[in-house]
Amino acid sequence: MARIVGIDLGTTNSLIAYMKDGQPCVVPDRHGRTMVPSVVALTDNGLIVGDPAKEHLTRNPERTVYSVKRFMGKGLADVESELAYFPYNLTETGGVIRIRLGAKHYSPPQISAMILKELKLRGEAYLGESITKAVITVPAYFNDSQRQATKDAGLIAGLEVLRIINEPTAASLAYGLQEKTQGTIAVYDFGGGTFDISILKLKDGIFEVLATNGDTHLGGDDLDRLLVDLFIAEIRDRYGIDVGRYPDHMQTVRLEAERAKIRLSDDLKTEITIELPEDKGLFTRELTRDQLESLVVGVIERTLAPCRIALKDAGLTPHDIDEVVLVGGSIRMPLVRQRVEALFGKAPHCHLNPDEVVALGAAVQADILSGGTTDMLLLDVTPLSLGIETMGGVMSSLIRRNTTIPASAKEMFTTYVDGQTGVDIHILQGERELVKDNRSLARFRLKVPPLPAGVPRIEVTFLIDANGILNVTAKDMRTGESQSIEVRPSYGLSDTEVERMIEDSFKFAAEDINARKLIEARLDAEALSKTTKKSLADAGHLISTEEVEGIRHALAQLSAANTGGDSRVIRARMAELEQAAKRLNVVMLDDSLKKSLQGKKVTELP
Amino acid sequence: MANDQPSTRPETRHQLQMARSMCWHCQSAMSGEYFCERCVKVQPVSKDTDYFTCLGFPRRLTLDPKKLEAKFYELSRAFHPDFYQAKSPTEQTISLGNAAVLNTAYRTLRDPIQRAEYLLALEAGSVKDIRTSPPADLFEEILELQDTLEQYRASDRESDEGHRLRATLQTEQQTLERRREEMESQIRQLFTDWDQLQDRGEATSQARAERDRILKRMRDLLSHRTYINNIVNDLAATIA
Predict the structure, then answer these.
(1) B→A interface, C-beta within 8 Å
(2) % of chain A beyond a pLDDT of 70
(3) Complex ipTM above 0.90?
(4) Strand A13-20 to strand A195-203: parallel, antiparallel, or no bridges (unpaired)?
(5) CATH of domain B10-110
């Protein structure tokens, strides 16, 4: 079986991991960095992803997308309250948010697919083989639409998504593999954009999730925003400048807020420095950990209610939890650790790398699927109750939250009017009584043969698979025939749209690769210019003036090529420079050799 | 039919399955429980297999939760879709369906009340017939309680009246909780009665009468208990 990789598609950072000799490992880039910032930027030379894209956050804010995970499986109305924080342009088509980059609009799964492709390329370069299959993690509290959107992103990126797995449970797999413990654990996963709590029972290699809860709109981003709001208000008071009108400076403020928050996990106070728009100078202020904590304590408190509900659903008290495992970047804040410790009455487990553990767990799950690991099995649950709309706008639950998946429910439908040929069914997810308070997942029309009222009997099976994704099938009980159902998702891409996006993604793959090659060529060219200039300064006197002139000329040519948009031209100029500087390098080598030999007798040589 | 012979021993179960099914893949008569012994392909759990049979337990009401869990884990390892990734689409579909049935079976049998309701449905018709109804002797009391609840909901909770109503409701809640416990203990006694009757395996008319008595009593108790339980939850939510 071809290799299956594990991918943590995070709000802020994403990682790819694989299994090596029974141990999960994260794939690093050539600089040893394991995290790919989940940022996509449209540059004049095409789309770029990750670290180079992150630089465009302040340079090019309207065309640089970050935190796209917050928009997965959502409509524009869902994110209305936070639109002001995003400098890029958001619209909606067919219940799906679209992000404008230049002349084109992209759905969140397409942007996520670009991040997935970057991870795929990284994995392929590192492992030296093509990667086509993956396990991708999602927050445990993601609903059906958000999971489906993640699966679509994988498809668009050219990946077969063999499993969608919940982030806290993925973490528990990595934890279980490392610690080999048994008992009841709580995984507290506080990431960049989402919060999850999962309570699991670990016994004889079975990881049984007892209950899960969370908030898919609660994370480090929300902490940063409180700081951003504070700084913006202070800048307005002190300088009369509305930073909100300057997207690039908004990004500067946001990034500084994030960095200050991170620094205050180690330090008790820090210095904030923000460059103001219109050359108004610098905004500076001191920020103490106490100030930060009193600002964000409310957001952190919001993670505790889901913890209590999960405990109650699992039929447990905090005392029953043997270990609390912390996951996600936000758990580095001392206040978060204090609150978790206070709730569960024990010091949490912090020996795992909170940034990498989810990706590592995804790799373990990938290994289970490929048949490598056979002694571990994850039994996860569906986080939200699934139901259908009944008379009077009430939701009738079919599968309760925290039911172990795969889970199925059957419901018999009939007609109320003679000759009726269809029954409309509206599928919902949520815990509230009324349809309007729950999440609409999809609608479909059940086809019924025209018969007297009450005679047709159509059995509909609602099956939540191991990915937590709903599948609907129908069967006419009179004829025994199955009926294919076309489900119209309320907040998702249609199958045809996903197919078109896959085609597009292949079409533009060449462009994307060119953009990537260009960036790499430029970086290499800059490095070569720098070393050559240094050699020239150190040893230029050892070669002829013609030769020095030749090198200077080649350097100038390369510098000119580097501002152009063709990686092949840059590479050609680099080769010419290398050729021109060849003798300089030889002479330098001879010279240093000579110097090291000076004053030594032949017999002393090694 | 199973209804007339509630004693379901493993041997009879095997015979029943053998008589009814052949392997979907190699068409040989099925002798294995969930896997064909000839071609080792997973077999779909039959629609007629009840949850007790599915988890390999006799139709008894007292179950050892540890044994139930161990069996659930064992069968999860056999059926879970994780282990069918490299198998054919048919096997993947069967694994998905079986895992879903297994999960429902375990969830139902793990909880004593759901287990009893399920057994009633198996032995004496649909569980949906079990309406929630108040115990006859509590009828007046419950009507009065509903009144008090209405008054409390309409009252200013911080007023003296509100405090008084709240205290009344709290006392009522405790009374009902005690009543619920009594019912649960009576239900547990019926569990023992049922299991003993089944273990004796008698086919006399006396035994049949005893069986009907237990099932009737169980139905009434479950119905009353659910009713009381709903009120207790409602009370708890209102005065929380």
Answers:
(1) 73, 76-77, 80-83, 85-86, 96-97, 99-101, 103-104, 106-107
(2) 98
(3) no
(4) unpaired
(5) 1.10.287.110
